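Team,

Forwarding the record for the chain on the shared tracking sheet. I've put the sequence and predicted structure together so nobody has to dig through attachments.
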Amino acid sequence: MKQTDAHRGANSIARIVFVGLSVVAQAAWIIVQIVALNRYSVYISLCSSLLAALVVLKLYSGHTNAAMKMPWIMLILVFPVMGLSLYLLIVVCGDLGGTKKRLRAVRRQMPQPENSRVPAGMEWSRSIVKSGYPVYGDTDVRYFAEAKDAFEALKADLETAGKFIFMEYFIVEDGAAFREIEEILTRKAAAGVQVRLMYDDIGSIGVASMKLVRRLNRRGIRCKVFNPAVPFLNLFMNHRDHRKITVIDGRVGYTGGFNLAGEYFGYSAPLGHWKDTGLRLEGRAVESLTRTFLELWSVTAREEEDLTPWLGIACPAAGEGYILPFGDDPLDEHRAAEDLYLNLIGSARERIWFITPYLIITDELNRALGLAAKRGVDVRIITPGIPDKKTVYSMTRSYYGGLARQGVRIYEYTPGFCHAKMCVRDGETAVVGTSNLDFRSLYLHFENDVILHRCPAAADVERDFQAMFEKSTEVTEKYAAGRGAMLLVWQCVLRLFAPMM
């Protein structure tokens, strides 16, 4: 034993010496390169500056939001080599992974919905309908003001599955809450139900692993990880799957702000009361959720599959009003969620209210909210009382002053953290889903939302807003008065890099 330990000790020392010598050798090589290249420094600097200028011109002429361009332009001009390298790595190479091509191929393969009619009074939804997401009737909608209630209803509906279960979430936590879901899915898979589960790798980092994937696949649950994070090898890491979808037999669907993790359902309370909401759809509108799931599943699985058996399932249900579920993705110039919010704000007559965990908005949204408030619309925004990310929270608060001075009323949810992403306009139209009011959701992530128009669930959303206002603290006057100089400078720096956060 002693000889073995001595041998191991000698081996460890040898390894340490080897690593040390390797580091010294690498440093020496870098110094030699610097000295050798020094004579060409003027030409290298000139070339890098010209390349930086060309990239900046290309950036400036692009059709994306100006706030998305500015941080990159400044970074490239101030630090040409580092800025260009990061831009090429994150933005240019990040969009060359073939995902866009595969996604377009999947959409071409899918049978297209026939209904493209836009009901009177919903003209603001026309661009979404044209992108392939119809407006449905014949759908029953149930709104859950608390995610824990949605969780109980979800488990009950999973028990009724007879053909297939599709689930797609940003976060799947391998913990107590998900184990309850897993137990049901395992039994259903054993009974012959097609069960598919997909989660985002970055979203679930630290709470799920390939051990979970292997366990689920052994139990007959087909599990895929969207966009696995492999630094420097997978360059598409900037775009994440932020969607939350469950589809059961094509007749029942769930979505909302909640992920499959303990804090959403009260299993833990790290940030006070965790406010999140959800929707249950039953009827024809569920088909759009099915389509949205199949898009990224097909891209991630990289399998040729006939998708028609999962679509066109006739399952009308009694329901009032109109329902429009839709997906949003970062791979085209159509910003479905942002365009929708701009249209709803612009068409609001009496009131429009938002709740979001992160308020990091574009100049267009900022101006639209201000203009609505100035014309007499009651514009309110609820943000968390307890933050989950302090830097992002500081960035959120940096928008309060400008909005408050334009007449927008700002509330902070006193009981804890609000993760819900919702909007309600004039008591007749509501949006519930996954899109935050921030750059990542509106420009970089795959999202999904549901529009509720003139249906009872929209009124339920408004009543929940009224209840939340009573539990929240209004901070409008506090921030309308302005902030200290040092804080203002810090907030300006944060705002500059907001699109990268």
